[in-house]
Amino acid sequence: MIELQHLERRYGDAYAVRDLNLKFPEGELTALLGPSGCGKTTTLRMINRLTEPSAGRVLLGGRDTRDLRPEELRRGLGYVIQQIGLFPHLTVAQNVATVPELLGWDRRRTARRVDDLLELVGLDPAVYRAKKPGELSGGQAQRVGVARALAADPPVLLMDEPFGALDPLARDRLQDAFKDIQQRLRKTVVLVTHDIDEALRLGDRIALMHAGTLAQFGTPDDLIHRPASPFVRHFLGEDAVLRQLAGRAAAEFVRPGDPAGLPRIADTLDARSALGVMLREGSDALAVLREGVPLGVLRWDDLRVREAQARKAQA
Ligand SMILES: Nc1ncnc2c1ncn2[C@@H]1O[C@H](COP(=O)(O)OP(=O)(O)OP(=O)(O)O)[C@@H](O)[C@H]1O
Predict the structure, then answer these.
(1) Distances in Å between the alpha carbon of 79 and those of 99, 193, 216?
(2) Which stretches make up the ABC transporter domain (predicted)?
């Protein structure tokens, strides 16, 4: 879907991005992760040509993006940034409708699309349609930004630290909401972040960058259990396994078993917190309940296997 070939961007003698080769798989979310200044934003902006490459090329659906007109290119690429820049004098509905209106959709179709999208991002259209951006919380404004980027149904979504400006609680909520949306829509998403937890939580794959080059490309499991270099291991940190558990629901690790007499947790609890409950309760197994009904049992060993694998890979 999106392919970077020998992509480079120089500023004077310095390389912001150097000989970057990468294929972003279709329908998946790839987190572009790395320390500050490693070239993530420059890479993203070379995809929609807000920044022109010094060398190399970007292919979109097999076509060199230089052969596409910029408007044509950007229409196929939704773009969400940290300071989303909603138009303050327009209503929420008008903000979301910007692109459909540019495309000349009729009013009925646009209005329907706006309501569908507001619902998708968890904002009741009847309540939010007529509000102005100034009346929204940071999290709500960011949801409107996501809705706006999805308005013309672009196959690709480029996101630059979209949740970065939010407080931790709002960020968690919006990450969860976005994960749900992505599971339904299956867009090809490139998400720039320097937040390891966010990359582990949302990324089907992670492209970890270091000083303008690619340090490793793989699934979160690959990076944690099979780091390609000391840099990767160091960047993810000693507690990478715990971090990964934090991003996964306890329900993922449930196995059949007799829950009678075990401490109980909800299936939506994350696996790291479940580990905490085991330690606190002094129990090596927990009953996992979905809406009050037992699903099965979560065992210490099932969580620990992953930890052991990680240690072995790091040894
Ligand atoms: N317009 C510019 N002029 C000169 N140097 C630039 C310019 N834009 C970026 N750079 C340099 O290129 C490098 C990569 O920048 P980039 O913004 O892509 O990094 P990043 O990984 O997105 O960082 P951050 O997480 O801090 O936003 C940095 O060293 C930066 O100083």
Answers:
(1) 12, 14, 25
(2) 2-236
**114 and 195 inside one domain:** yes
ipTM: 0.94
Distance CA 21, CA 19 (A): 6
Question: Residue 106: exposed, middle, or buried by beta-carbon count in 10 A (0-12, 13-18, 19+)?
Answer: exposed
Atom of ligand 1 nearest to the CA of 41: 22
Say if 313 falls within a structural domain.
no
Q: Whose CA is nearest to atom 29 of ligand 1?
A: 37
Averaged confidence pLDDT in the chain: 89
pLDDT above 70 covers a percentage of the chain that reads 96
Q: Which helix (H) or strand (E) holds 178?
A: helix 168-185
Helices 107-120 and 138-150 meet at what angle, rounded to 10? 130
> Which residues make Cβ contacts (< 8 Å) with residue 305, sequence separation at least 6?
none
Spans of the chain, pLDDT less than 70: 84, 304-315
Does residue 149 lie in a domain region? yes
Centre of ligand 1 from the C-alpha of residue 97, in Å = 32
For residue 40 and ligand 1, the question of a CB distance below 6 A is answered with yes
**What is the residue with the minimal CA distance to atom 11 of ligand 1?**
16
Ligand 1 centroid to residue 221 C-alpha, Å: 28
Ligand 1 atom 17 nearest Cα: 41
Domain that holds residue 26: 2-243
Quote the pLDDT of residue 72: 80
